[in-house]
Design brief:
The complex is a heterodimer of chains A (203) and B (470). Chain A is 36% helix and 16% strand. Chain A is built from nine helices and eight strands. With 203 residues, chain A is of the alpha/beta class. In chain A, β3, α3 and β4 form a beta-alpha-beta unit. Chain B has 470 residues and is of the alpha/beta class. Helix content of chain B is 31%, strand content 16%. Chain B is built from 15 helices and 18 strands. In chain B, strands 5-4-3-6-7 form a five-stranded parallel beta sheet, with helices on both faces. A four-stranded parallel beta sheet of chain B has the order 11-10-9-12. Chain B has a four-stranded parallel beta sheet with strand order 16-15-17-18. In chain B, α6 links the parallel β9 and β10. Chain B is globular, with a radius of gyration of 21 Å. Classes of the chains: A alpha/beta (203), B alpha/beta (470). Chains A and B meet through α4, α7, α8 and α9 of A and α2, α3, α5, α10 and α11 of B.
C-alpha cells in the first residue's frame, strides 16, 4: 500500500443511504481471479443510466466519494474497495460504514472518513450545490476541511490504522514480527484442542 | 480480570488474545479458517508474491459453493470465468496443502452449511471466512465473522487477525413463538426493530427462552443474518442442544476428548451480573411470519401486513430510501402483501437450506395437497450434498417434485446469482435467502425475504401467503 497523508480534490455526491457492496460492484465481477480491472464494474447497474451522478461531466476527475449513511454494508467483497480505488477514489465520506468494507478500505489505501450525520449532510449539500468545491482530508490531523464553506470536522481513525496509512505499511509484515507470540499461544491452547488437532492431522 | 463477571463474547475473545498492547488492536488467534473460490484467489496470489506460506493449512478448509451450477454438475462449468475461478481454488489448495471439497464431492456444500455438519465448527472457537455470512457459526457459541481478501491473506500467513474489541449487544427474545413463526421470522423481526445499522460496532448475543428453544438449524438461521443488522458477529451460548448436535460428528472430539471438550464448553455463558453495552428485548409470542417489502433487510412487515407509506415516515433519509425502494420493487403504499404475486420461489442459501428448512417447506406442501401455482418458477437448492442425501432418504425430494418444484444440486445459487440461477429484470421472488438488495438475485430482480414455510406457501398460492392462508 502507498503511503497516504493528504487527499485534496473534488467529490462525487452519491446522495443515497444504504449503498451496499452489491451495488458498488455486482456479483458477476466477483468471478475474476485478478486484482485489477474492477473500475469498469464500479456501480455497474447504475452506470448505464446517463443521469447517474458518476456519469456527469462536472464530476470528472473527482477523487473523493461522498455518500449517505450505511455505505458499504452487506457482502465482504473487497472487490468493492478495489473498484473504488482503481476508479480513482482515494477517500469515501459517509456518516456510517459497513464494518467489513471499512476494514477492507484500510488495507488498500482508501480512507474511510466517518462524519457526523449533520456534518455529512452539510458537506453533501455543499457538493451538490458546487461540484468544484475543494475538499482536503488530512490523515495525520484526522480532519476534513472545505475552506470555501468554512467546514472543518474531525473523523475517527484508530492510531494503528492511521500509522499504516501514513507509512504505507503491510499489515502481514507487522504481525509476522510477533510470530514467536503466535507460536507461544499455540503451545498453550487447551489439551483437548491440541490433541484433537493431532488426531485430525494423523488421518 | 477473570473474577469479574464477563459476557460470552468477552470469554471467547479473551481466550484467543495472542497479544494485547495499549493503543493497538488485539491480535486474535483464529481456530478455523474457511475459504471458497470467490474471495481467496487474490489472497493466494499475495502469498506467492511475497514468498509467504500458509501457517496452518490443517486449520483451513475449502469448498466450492458460490459459482457452482445447480444442474448438470457432472459436466464442466459452462461459464469459462466461473470455471477458471473454481479451478484456481483447486490449484491453490493443492499447492498449499489445504483440504478442498469440490463440486460433486459428498462433503461439498455452502461453506456455512458443510462446516457445521462435519463437526468442524465448535463452541468457543474463532471462525473466519471471506464471506459476510460467517456469523452463522455463532450458533455454536463461536465468535465468527466475515473478512475481506486482504484479511484472508493475513489469516493464511499468520493464523491471526488484528481486531479491535467490539461492544456487546444483548438481543433477548423471550416467550414462545406462535404457530407458523420460525427462526427466520425472529431475525426478520429483529431487523425490523434495529434496522441495518442497529448492530454496527457490536457483537450480538441472542438470548432468552425463544432462542434456547431453537434447534441448531434455527440458531444458525438467526446468527446468519447478524451482518444484516450491521453487527460484526452474533452468537448463542452453547447448551445441551448444541452438544447433542455435535456428538458423533466427523470432526467433533470423541471419547475422552469429548468429555474434556464438553466440560470446557459448559463454561461458555454470560455470567450473572455481566453487563452489555446495549440491550433489546422482543416478545416471541408477538412475532408473526415476516416478509421484506424493500431493498434492505430492515424493510420488513408481517405477511398479513401492508406495504408502508413513506409519507408517514418521520426521518427524511428513511423516507427517501423507502420511496426509492418502492419504485424499484414496483409496490404501492397500502398494498396488502398477500395481494402481491410472485414469479419465482427460491428455497436455499446459507440462511435456510438445512434439513429442517426443507422439512418445513415439504410439510407445507404435504398438508395443502396442492401444487405450484401456474406460472411460478421454483428452485429448491439444498445447502450441501449431505443435506440433499438426507432429504432424499426422507423422500422430501419427491414431495417437492411431486408438487412441481424444481429439485437442484447444492450451492449458493440464486442467493447471489453468481451461477446461472438468476432473476430476470422485473421478476419478483419469494426467497429464503438473506439480502433483498437491488439486483442481488439478478439485474433488475425484485427480492422478498421470507421463511421456508412462507416460501413454500407462496409458491402454492402464487402470491405471498403463510401456510395458514392456504
Amino acid at each position: 500500500m502507498e503511503p497516504v497523508q493528504i487527499i485534496s480534490g473534488t467529490a462525487v455526491p452519491l446522495d443515497r443511504s444504504d449503498v451496499d457492496t452489491d451495488q458498488i460492484i455486482p456479483s458477476d465481477w466477483l468471478k475474476r481471479v485478478e486484482r485489477t480491472g474492477f473500475e469498469a464494474g464500479l456501480f455497474g447497474e447504475w452506470r448505464d443510466d446517463r443521469d447517474f451522478v458518476l456519469n456527469k461531466q462536472e464530476h470528472a476527475g473527482a477523487n473523493i466519494l461522498i455518500a449517505g449513511p450505511q455505505f458499504g454494508t452487506g457482502s465482504s467483497r473487497e472487490h468493492a474497495v478495489w473498484a473504488l480505488h482503481q476508479y480513482g477514489f482515494r477517500a469515501v465520506i459517509s456518516p456510517r460504514f459497513g464494518d467489513i468494507f471499512r476494514n477492507n478500505a484500510t488495507k488498500n489505501g482508501l480512507v474511510p472518513v466517518q462524519l457526523s450525520a449533520a456534518g455529512g449532510r452539510t458537506l453533501m449539500d455543499a457538493v451538490l450545490n458546487d461540484p468544484t468545491l475543494e475538499i482536503v482530508i488530512d490523515v495525520e490531523l484526522r480532519t476534513v476541511e472545505a475552506q470555501a464553506i468554512d467546514f472543518l470536522e474531525s473523523f475517527p481513525l484508530e492510531d494503528s490504522i492511521q500509522h499504516r496509512f501514513l507509512n504505507g505499511l503491510d499489515d502481514i509484515a507487522l504481525t509476522l514480527q510477533h510470530a514467536d507470540d503466535i507460536g507461544e499461544y499455540e503451545a498453550h491452547r487447551p489439551d483437548w484442542v491440541k490433541e484433537l488437532e493431532i488426531q485430525h492431522n494423523a488421518r | 480480570m477473570t473474577d469479574q463477571p464477563r459476557t460470552l463474547v468477552e470469554k471467547v475473545w479473551d481466550r484467543h488474545v495472542v497479544r494485547s498492547t495499549e493503543g493497538e488492536p488485539d491480535l486474535l488467534y483464529i481456530d478455523l479458517h474457511l475459504i471458497h473460490e470467490v474471495t481467496s484467489p487474490q489472497a493466494f496470489d499475495g502469498l506467492r508474491l511475497t514468498g509467504r506460506g500458509v501457517r496452518r493449512p490443517d486449520l483451513t478448509v475449502a469448498t466450492e459453493d458460490h459459482n457452482v451450477p445447480t444442474a448438470d454438475i457432472d459436466k464442466p462449468i459452462a461459464d469459462p470465468i466461473s470455471r477458471k475461478q473454481v479451478e484456481t481454488l483447486r490449484a491453490n489448495t493443492e499447492e498449499f496443502g489445504i483440504v478442498n471439497f469440490p463440486m460433486g464431492d459428498p462433503g461439498q456444500g455452502i461453506v456455512h452449511v458443510m462446516a457445521p455438519e462435519q463437526g468442524r465448527t465448535l463452541p468457543g472457537m474463532t471462525v473466519v471466512c471471506g464471506d459476510s455470512h460467517t456469523a452463522t457459526h455463532g450458533a455454536f457459541g463461536a465468535i465468527a465473522f466475515g473478512i475481506g481478501t486482504s484479511e484472508v491473506e493475513h489469516v493464511l500467513a499468520t493464523q491471526t487477525l488484528p481486531q479491535s474489541r467490539p461492544k456487546t449487544l444483548a438481543i433477548n427474545v423471550e416467550g414462545t413463538l406462535r404457530e407458523g413463526a420460525t427462526a427466520k421470522d425472529i431475525i426478520l423481526a429483529v431487523l425490523g426493530v434495529l434496522g441495518t445499522s442497529g448492530g454496527m460496532g457490536y457483537i450480538a448475543e441472542y438470548r432468552g427462552s425463544a432462542i434456547e428453544a431453537l434447534s441448531m438449524e434455527g440458531r444458525m438461521t438467526v446468527c446468519n443474518m447478524s451482518i444484516e443488522l450491521g453487527a460484526k458477529a452474533g452468537l448463542i451460548a452453547p447448551d445441551e442442544t448444541t452438544f447433542e448436535y455435535l456428538r458423533g460428528r466427523e470432526h467433533a472430539p470423541a471419547g475422552e476428548l469429548w468429555d474434556a471438550a464438553v466440560a470446557d464448553w459448559k463454561t461458555l455463558y454470560t455470567d450473572e451480573g455481566a453487563t452489555f453495552d446495549s440491550e433489546i428485548t422482543l416478545d416471541a409470542s408477538k412475532i408473526e411470519p415476516h416478509v421484506s417489502w424493500g431493498t434492505n433487510p430492515g424493510q420488513v412487515v408481517p405477511v398479513s401486513g401492508r406495504v408502508p407509506d413513506p409519507a408517514a415516515m418521520d426521518d427524511p433519509a428513511e423516507r427517501t430510501a423507502a420511496e426509492r425502494a418502492l419504485a424499484y420493487m414496483d409496490l404501492e403504499p397500502g398494498q396488502a402483501m398477500t395481494d402481491v404475486k410472485v414469479d419465482t420461489v427460491f428455497i436455499g442459501s446459507c440462511t435456510n437450506s438445512r434439513i429442517e428448512d426443507l422439512r418445513a417447506a415439504a410439510e407445507v406442501i404435504r398438508s395443502s395437497g396442492s401444487g405450484v401455482a401456474e406460472g411460478v418458477r421454483t428452485f429448491v437448492v439444498p445447502g450441501s450434498f449431505a443435506v440433499k442425501t438426507q432429504a432424499e432418504s426422507e423422500g422430501l425430494d419427491e414431495v417437492f417434485t411431486g408438487a412441481g418444484f424444481d429439485w437442484r444440486e447444492p450451492g449458493c445459487s440464486m442467493c447471489l446469482a453468481m451461477n446461472p440461477d438468476k432473476l430476470s429484470p422485473g421478476e419478483r421472488s419469494a426467497s429464503t435467502s438473506n439480502r433483498n438488495f437491488e439486483g442481488r438475485q439478478g439485474r433488475g430482480g425484485r427480492t422478498h425475504l421470507v421463511s421456508p414455510a412462507v416460501a413454500a406457501a407462496s409458491a402454492l398460492a402464487g402470491h405471498f401467503a403463510t401456510p395458514e392462508d392456504l
